[in-house]
Design brief:
The structure is a single chain. The chain is of the alpha+beta class. It has 4 domains: 204 residues, ATPase, nucleotide binding domain (Nucleotidyltransferase, domain 5, 2-Layer Sandwich); 169 residues, 2-Layer Sandwich (Nucleotidyltransferase, domain 5); 122 residues, Sandwich (Substrate Binding Domain Of DNAk, Chain A, domain 1); 87 residues, Substrate Binding Domain Of Dnak, Chain:A, Domain 2 (Up-down Bundle), CATH 1.20.1270. Helix content is 37%, strand content 25%. Strands 3, 4, 5, 6, 13 and 14 form a 6-stranded mixed beta sheet that branches. A 4-stranded mixed beta sheet has the order 17-16-15-20, with helices on both faces. Bound molecules: adenosine monophosphate. Adenosine monophosphate binds next to helix 7 and helix 9.
């Protein structure tokens, strides 16, 4: 039943099912919608309030949850009960974050280094999914209060480098918060959409999205081809942002004013210094000089000094840009547009540095704190069917496939495939009477699965006893619009089937997708050689096993000489299989084939030919 609601604030009728766009950020989060009347994206905020909700969760002594500005005020006073940067923990094991463990002032559990992290507050344990769900719940509550209508559907943005596990974790957090997450969208894609890039455009555009927030820096190079967004490369530093600029100013003041270490052990003084530094930083975005008083001490700084303090950090971001452009295999001149995201891009020195590197003016007309949420709202509007001309598609960053004989990667969905997508392939068994088949799903570009990343594994059981090669197992990969993969396997003769939704155990580290792509290039030659050897060995083993069965079954029609000759050729092949010379193996396969061909032709039956054809898994 369709519901109609009235917005009490404006008196206008509202669609009951408004789909919101959510920027679930590391430090701040926002909700936006496309306004039903103006058709323009806007961030939601209470009258006279800020649209930004700090992504901070405070647990009081009774485990009550408080999110946002109020939680922020507990950061200094009760650090072990106040959780910030939960997004950094999404889909991570303790191993992934152990180098940055000191960053977290709350308790991150490390009892089992391979499993996903949990956070302990009071006597309770929370997963990053739980923590993100508290933030989303608060955003939902605020949005419902502003819109005066239930909010149950959302589009949520994630960094372009988030892997499947982190995307799935974000989606699960939405579910926990009572939100149906219709789509997970890359943050740079959303920012581009907010600038109207990729909407109703024909042809190709290359875009760089420079995102410098409070604590993280990302650069992404995107290509939009007829409305399809592809992430060509990402780079950045997950521990670099505006907070570091504040720290530079604090350190400058400490040395300039000879503030003693004894004074600095006073927590509230260091906190005041930090806040004054942030104030100075913001002021210097529009003025030449800042001066203030802290407990009778004058703290001042000029824009020029601030820019000097900043220069090496900014240079670091430009080096990341260089790397991203190189990884994307594009020329600097091919980049059509540069989009600025994140509060720190308000600093003129940074805008100038980025624009001078790319040799173009940057796009900075949209509030850099809001641009991602606004883009998410545009995507939500498209999904709501309000913009029917436009379908947003995304692309898989790495290939997906199955392990086949010899540990080879059989790619079903090549990297850069458009999603959603569905592909299938048929496999068969390798052994007679084999009743189960292991389906191991991998992600990556290398030819051997051991060099790729295992996403999931399951056993298709209950395959009725049949000779090798007879069962027909259809394996299909379905990737939905969020990039979540469902793998199904069905044995066609018996109808047994099984499927799995891929929720990898723990995530890739941030730069790992890029590393995997790079390695596939550097190892390409070795990989081709290894694949050829593994394929030759697999073929050799299959032929040996088929020949052996054949001899046992057909001894009546084979002469003694033929039998001896075949045994010799089999032995030669067996020996070749222990060596690493692919050509030798192929020669021995040929020799065995030559010898067995005449009598094989006499008795070759359908079952044997079946066993010789078709790929088998394990
Ligand atoms: P975000 O994570 O995108 O919300 O960015 C927040 C960061 O932007 C914080 O470090 C802020 O101090 C910084 N920021 C916000 N406004 C300004 C400004 N006018 N000049 C410099 N930095 C700013």
């Amino acid at each position: 039943m369709a519901k109609i609601a009235i917005n009490i604030a404006t008196g206008s009728l509202q669609q009951a099912e408004m789909i919101v766009g959510i920027d679930l950020g590391t430090t701040n989060s926002l909700v936006a919608i496309v306004h039903p009347e103006t058709k323009q994206p806007v961030c939601l905020k209470e009258y006279n309030a800020n649209s930004i909700v700090p992504s901070i969760i405070y647990f009081d002594e009774n485990d009550n949850v408080i999110v946002g500005e109020e939680a922020h005020s507990h950061l200094e006073t009760n650090p072990s009960n106040t959780i910030f940067s939960a997004k950094r923990l999404m889909g991570k094991s303790y191993n992934d974050i152990k180098n940055n463990a000191s960053f977290f002032s709350y308790k991150v559990i490390d009892d089992n280094t391979e499993s996903l992290v949990k956070v302990q507050v009071n006597n309770k344990f929370y997963s990053p999914i739980d923590l993100s769900s508290f933030i989303l719940k608060e955003l939902k509550k605020r949005a419902e209060h502003i819109l005066k209508t239930p909010v149950t559907k959302a589009v949520i943005t994630v960094p372009a480098y988030f892997n499947d596990a982190q995307r799935q974790a974000t989606r699960d957090a939405g579910k926990l918060a009572g939100l149906d997450v219709l789509r997970i969208v890359n943050e740079p894609t959303a920012a581009s959409l907010a600038y109207g890039l990729g909407i109703n455009t024909d042809g190709e555009k290359t875009i760089a999205v420079y995102d410098l927030g409070g604590g993280t820096f990302d650069i992404s190079v995107l290509r939009i081809t007829n409305g399809i967004f592809e992430v060509l490369s990402t780079n950045g530093d997950t521990y670099l942002g505006g907070d570091d600029f504040d720290k530079q100013i604090v350190d400058y003041w400490i040395s300039k004013n000879n503030i003693s270490q004894a004074l600095l052990s006073n927590k509230s003084l260091t906190q005041s210094l930090r806040l004054k530094a942030e104030e100075a930083k913001k002021h210097l975005s529009f003025n030449e000089f800042f001066s203030t008083d802290l407990n009778g001490t004058e703290l001042s700084i000029t824009k020029e000094i601030f820019e000097n303090l900043l220069s090496s950090l900014v240079e670091k971001t430009i080096n990341s840009c260089k790397q991203a452009v190189a990884d994307a295999s594009v020329e600097l001149s091919e980049i059509d547009t540069i989009v600025m995201v994140g509060g720190s891009t308000r600093i003129p020195f940074i805008k100038n540095a980025v624009s001078s590197y790319f040799g173009k003016a940057v796009n900075d007309s949209i509030n850099p704190d809001e641009v991602v949420a606004l883009g998410a709202a545009i995507q939500a509007d498209i999904l709501a069917g309000n913009n029917k001309d436009f379908l947003l598609l995304d692309i898989t960053p790495l290939s997906l496939g199955l392990e086949t004989m010899g540990g080879l990667m059989d790619v079903l969905v090549p990297r850069n495939s458009k999603i959603p997508t569905k592909v299938g392939r048929q496999y068969t068994t390798q052994k007679d009477g084999q009743s189960s088949m292991r389906i191991s799903v991998f992600q990556g570009e290398r030819d051997l699965v051991k060099d790729n990343r295992k996403l999931a594994e399951f056993n298709l059981t209950g395959i009725p006893g049949m000779p090798a090669g007879l069962p027909k197992v259809d394996v299909s990969f379905l990737i939905n619009a969020d990039g979540i993969l469902t793998v199904s396997a069905k044995e066609l003769r018996s109808g047994v089937e099984q499927s799995i939704e891929v929720k990898p155990q723990y995530g890739l580290t941030d730069g790992e997708v890029e590393r995997m792509l790079l390695e596939s290039i550097t190892h390409a030659k070795d990989d081709i050689a290894t694949r050829a050897l593994v394929e030759a060995r697999t073929e050799g083993e299959q032929i040996l096993s088929v020949t052996e069965k054949f001899l046992a079954k057909n001894s009546a029609i084979i002469s003694k000489d033929e039998m001896l000759e075949t045994a010799q050729a089999m032995q030669n092949l067996q020996l070749a299989l222990t060596m690493t010379d692919k050509n030798l193996i192929q020669t021995k396969i040929e020799e065995l084939n030559e010898i067995s061909r005449p009598f094989a032709e006499r008795a070759m039956d359908a079952a044997v030919s079946g066993a010789l054809s078709g790929k088998s898994i394990l």
